[in-house]
Amino acid sequence: MNFSKTLRGLMLAAGLLSAAFAGSSMAQTFPTKPVTLVVPFAAGGPTDILARTLAASMTKELGQTVVIENRAGAGGTIASAFVAKAPADGYTLLIHHNGMATAPTLYRKLPFNALTDFTYVGLVADVPMTLLGRKDLPPNNMAEFIAYAKAQGNKINLANAGLGAVSQLCGTLLQQALGVGFTAIPYSGTGPAMIALVGGQLDVLCDQTTQTLAQIKAKTVKLYGVTSAERLSYLPDTPTLREGGLKDFEIVVWHGVYGPKNIPAPVAARLNQALKAALKDPAVIAKAGDLGAVIVPEAKQTPEALQAWVKDEIAKWAPLLKAAGQYAD
What we know:
Elements: H1 3-29, E1 35-39, H2 46-62, E2 66-70, H3 77-84, E3 92-96, H4 99-106, E4 118-134, H5 142-152, E5 157-160, H6 166-178, E6 183-186, H7 190-198, E7 204-208, H8 209-218, E8 221-226, E9 252-260, H9 265-280, H10 282-290, E10 294-295, H11 303-324
Parallel strand pairs: 1-2, 1-3, 5-6, 5-7
Antiparallel strand pairs: 3-9, 4-7, 4-8, 4-9, 4-10
């Protein structure tokens, strides 16, 4: 018998066993302090509302408070870069939408790699968008809006939450479809933009139903259409933008949860477990429904599904964004 070879084998087995016990122990003890969920937009916006709903349920599952921290700016890249550089211990997470997949094309000097600098936790929900105008904007339907937009051009003010935000992406696609250029008015988030729209300081906003349903129901804004492929059950009389005359126009907002790369596997698994539990919570499902959001199927709630989705979305939007010619340094 080769004693040294046997000894090395025993040491390797002991090391693997020790690592397994350590991993199991880590998963059982995590978390021992509050977890921060970073939102890359202003408080009161659609992603913020969804994040707070999710955080309340994950708090119950994890046994520690999930704290919301808003780090708005640069279409979500400031918050994304912050989380990418945070300690890989599972205590700093990010919730982000389509901006994670559009940033690699929109920003020439992106301070993170969307595919390699994060630990993927899972997809959360899909949210359709709505095209809104201020209450006293002259057009009363989509056909009238198209004619009005083509006549007014850059006299129309279009709000967004900054380069890379889905409101900006929707606005870019809208202008491409119409063949006109509006005057873009960036805000730190669509929460402040909605306040300006309701107040009459802005003309048009394209935003998620999580943010717009309350104002639509209160009739403080004009609703021209929804961006989904089909009409929404909770807005059955509202046509899609396709029906309104914008061929092939479709955009749905998706949200995912991320952490810094190299979070220990047991901790990452615990976070995914907490996310899945939250997405089964009747309170979360009900709140999401009230906001017009749809919880993704369980098969899409995995880290692997989120990573594959981001990769596919980068490839999908890159040619459209390049055609629009909008970049940031």
